[in-house]
Write a structure and sequence with these properties.
4 copies of one chain form a homotetramer.
Chain A (H helix, E strand, L loop, with lengths): L3 E6 L8 E6 L8 E9 L2 H7 L15 E8 L17 E4 L2 E2 L5 H5 L10 E2 L19 E4 L5 E3 L6 H5 L4 H12 L8 E4 L3 H12 L5 E5 L2 H10 L3 E4 L6 H12 L2 E6 L4 H7 L3 E9 L9 E3 L1 H6 L3 E4 L5 H18 L5 E5 L4 H9 L5 E4 L5
Parallel strand pairs in A: 10-11, 10-13, 11-12, 13-14, 14-16, 17-18
Antiparallel strand pairs in A: 1-2, 3-4, 3-8, 3-18, 4-5, 5-9, 6-7
């Protein structure tokens, strides 16, 4: 085995990522060295690269990754659910690390509310031990505190990574709202990884009809393949009132509306699209892009319930893998991975994701 | 008994109410004639008078009223909870009437979502039978479909009416959010009838500390008397950011924030004042006063839950009376009734309520 | 049109039903006369016939029925959801009538908790107006207070009636527990109408795996057709511990267990079959057959949640029809109606249902 | 400082505890040595002593304890909520340790469902490092994984320990059911530490009336002091039907019933005492004492909800301390500590608790 790993390094915002070699630390007790199969190129990676997120540079991007176990440290014999693991096994690891001692972690018992949350791929400098702390790398080094789950045999690695962190994000959001039942109408704003994951979850839960509003066309096609009953292409619907009118005309008011766009104005539109006593789940507007002109009298007069949800916990990733084991032979999420990039092409991947050229792009450091 | 009733009639928006005499219909099977003790002057009455609400003029205002039973129609022997009633009993009746056959009534089983809701005091013209369909009147005529509840003996009529429809509105809102538990911090925006009712409910539920943000001074004093641990006078805090800063400095972030102001901008401030995973109950912005610049990324990143709640159902009024029976000897809500007006002075009452001159004003048609 | 209707009358417990002719009342304002297409023979009918339920004899059995509108009284132009109705339309009516003024109806706002509940088919004597108050009759006379819903065009009448009152019972139960989500394991005890309805609902909600424990064989086959992943025939598993062991061996512990057997001892077994923090929905044990030896330490130590649920409300029947409109072309619930009886053979129907000879039996008064 | 600690050791079931000296380990990084102020004598300790719980003897009993920090290991500068701690500070530590990698811990995210739960005072042998693993000891040695919370200044140590693990048990139970609101009637079966804690929580939440059914007299007196509106002494009410009748006659049916007795039969009685659609919280029957004859038709026909709840998590203890800081100046829970025993008298303490001689007994190793 080699003692170095090649990585694509973000050294300066807006600059091309640099290919570097970093040392692979000794795999001590409890640690795991993973050989990266694929690391998703998330929209957040683009924000990081563009300098819109504060990072301890140099950073290895990549916070949603699957790989094979290269080496297990002493005592690490099970994954985070107690499943036995061995070298060669395919695993999906959890990039985020809560502090486990703040108000969010201890009192709220919700690590998505941790005030000191750190994550591989964004919060750690690769200048510090254990260096290999992001997915745009041949190898990732997991210390004892990282959660990881074995990928079920029947699930292709690319199916597991297809919607990246968007899938567990959606699973957590659905948990927050208590799910959606058979025959409930769902309107999903946004056809990116979070929105598409919501299509899967809504469909599995029997929702009907499921309408997806978004762009561009290939994503809407994927939405239909995953079970959307109706898609609305927002290309050309430039004004909020046009989009609201179109959605109302086509889909009526929804029992459940889901915001998965990332644009604040979508929320102003969404509240107009929920039926009385209906629910609105907000997951997309993660970055602070300022306020949107939302009408509270609609929320009050329609008895609406709005739920914000951010991040996810290890069990939500476990749920993703479990659901995939049940339904991926039919869904074939691996088809959503529409572009694979070598480490050398990571910068191109960021450009392409920024331009919405792919349904999902991944960095595949060992593919050729 | 007389066969006519004097009423204060809204014949034209912005004009003084006129004193008229209307015929008292025969009290047929199931009907009830009530002699009005007091009818609250709600902020909505001011909106109606100012022409901001569409009404089938001429209308008798007054949708929150208590009175004594003057005459019971045949077969009407019980109140809506099965308590025996007799002439002379004091009752609080429910002004609103759902249609019982729309999506809201039948499928949502929530009459506050009725799409054909009508109400004494706003939706009926007094030109139509049974004429006496609002509280600014010596007598009110209740047909068989009206819910009414006997006021418990130990509760003064003015205590029952003190926060008018604001109290059952608050009870329903608290029901929607599942209540607030011991030791939870509560921030209430607004010190009108809804806000003050929330103080009572939060205090009864053991919340601590309870902070009320509002104006003017006498309302904040009443808030303290009812159990608020802290009040913030917003006089002089003209900019939203000033109010947010002041609230944060004094009260920190709240487990539960409640909007009871009626101003859309309050909602934009409120989302900044809820702790992560906290809840925000919106009840104040009933009239459509347009949008406010709300930041959805705060809702998402803090896992916030927002609940709109409008109107209330008969059982919420019953709950008000039941709670008053338990705690009014201590609370003495009757002291909140700070002004009583004869029918002739109803227009003055509207002026005074508009100018926030009273904690609570009532029309007392028979007082002298 | 005739002015008389033939009915099968229960005049004395355990005696054969008698064929009689009863007068058809004038169809006054708000009333509806319905020509019976099919009336389900519910297990409760057998209990009624066997004298285990107190009835105001003579009674026309039949509380789950579909028919065509023969005549609409003045003013009755819509069904209970506001859909226009006309003579000739197929409808499913709600047999039960709450009092709308007791603690359950008003304060709990749950008519299944009504303390004065009456129902066509059980609580009314046919000696009293309007006489035709049960489904084992050529015609049923609905007064203004009866809820009725139009059957969607694409749904065969026998599909609507296939699980009779068991289907809305199951819908209400699922509502009580907040539904079941994708990938959750469900164990259903009992393969009668309630149990089979639960299979449909669990499957629509994405539950997996779904295990049904019951008998006899044709019902388990129907369970599989409707989506059960596994069935356990309890024939030969005579002791509770045998059934518990078999279920555990085959299905493990369930996220959700559902009791739909009617036998108290099933509950004692069920609590052993729910995973920690899991849920147990009890709907089957409607009649008081005495206690079962249940171990509360299991409930405590596993953090179990048990939910009892009885009856249903009009909206649950509406939900049944709405779900059938969505999925019956695939499910073909009409195939569950395995036996049709003329009025003259109603007694035989009761015998056959008692002997579990049918998946579902119906009385079809006009079929030949 | 000494390097040895005196402990009262359970070496053999039913034998007197033995006074021994055990070595105090070096206080390494992250560890904490605590000087025991008081350790509650829980009913579970009696079960342990009586050989009804399997233990890795020799064991130091005591799983609910408060003490002062004698020595802090390197790096241990905060309590589990991030509050700074120093030597001399009074703390309440969490005896239980979840495994953090089982289905309960990871997927259910509920450490009370941990399948490998261990706890100071019951699951560790004092033959193994770090030896001082129970509260009946002069000193307790906490390794890095133990949660501990600083006791608020205004709270006496004995107030914090007064209901021992019963108080956080009750806090968790109330969390499971979503609390109890103002004006709701509560019936509590049992007046031990769990039952009395429920009185405190119900009272803080505004419940009314609160009825406690139990024995003996001093505990019922304490219940009244804490806010119970009514107590029912079960002395002389030997048959279940007598207790049910007495409770119904005095208290009617309760919105919420709570089982805190430890006796299975209490559950059979409790289901008869909940109103329709009401809730029943089961916390008392922790040990498996076999089944009770419970009538499931009551659960079904009344739409009851039953919630089992066991154990608690660190945040529930934090909540106890927070609530005490708010209300103990009024409640003075320290008065519930009715007996203090030296280590030498620990056996006598077990005898007295077994005989229900005390409201609450504590071992106070350093008192004299």
């Amino acid at each position: 085995m080699t003692d170095k790993a090649r990585v694509a390094l973000l050294e300066q915002a807006n600059e091309p990522l640099r290919i570097r070699e970093l040392p692979i630390p000794e795999v001590k007790e409890g640690c795991v060295l993973v050989k990266t199969l694929a690391s998703g190129v998330c929209g957040t990676d683009v924000h990081c690269w563009r300098g819109q997120v504060k990072l301890p540079l140099p950073v290895i991007l990549g916070h949603e990754s699957v790989g094979t176990i290269e080496k297990l440290g002493a005592g690490r014999t099970q994954d985070s659910m107690g499943e036995p693991i061995a070298e060669g096994d395919r695993v999906f690891w959890v990039a985020g690390h809560p502090c486990n001692k703040c108000y969010g972690c201890v009192i709220l018992k919700d690590t998505t509310a941790c005030s000191n949350r750190k994550s591989y791929g964004t919060s750690y400098s690769c200048a510090d031990y254990p260096y290999l702390v992001g997915g745009y790398s041949e190898y990732v080094f997991l210390t004892g505190r990282s959660f990881l789950f074995k990928i079920p045999e029947q699930v292709p690695a690319e199916a597991a990574i297809a919607f990246g962190c968007g899938f567990p994000t959606a699973v957590k959001g659905f948990e927050v709202i208590g799910g959606v039942g058979p025959g409930k109408s769902v309107l999903i704003q946004g056809a990116g990884p979070v929105g598409l994951s919501c299509v899967v979850l809504a469909k599995l839960g029997g929702a009907h009809p499921i309408t997806v509003m978004g762009a561009p066309h290939p994503r809407l096609e994927m939405a239909r393949r995953l079970g959307a009953d109706r898609t609305i292409d927002i290309a050309g619907l430039d004004r909020p009132e046009d989009r609201v009118k179109k959605a109302r005309d086509e889909a009526g008011e929804a029992d459940l509306c889901i915001e998965a766009t990332g644009y604040p104005t979508a929320v102003a539109e969404g509240v107009e699209l929920v039926r009385p006593n209906g629910r609105y789940l907000l997951m997309g507007v993660f970055s602070d892009l300022g306020p949107a002109p939302i009408n509270p009298s609609v929320v009050v007069r329609r008895n609406l319930k709005l739920y914000g949800s951010v991040f996810w916990e290890p069990r939500h990733l476990h749920e993703v893998l479990r659901l995939l084991a049940l339904c991926n032979d039919r869904l074939k999420l691996e088809d959503a991975v529409s572009a694979r990039y070598a480490l050398e092409d990571a910068t191109q991947a960021l450009h392409d994701v920024e331009a919405l050229k792919c349904v999902k792009a991944v960095i595949a450091p060992h593919a050729h």
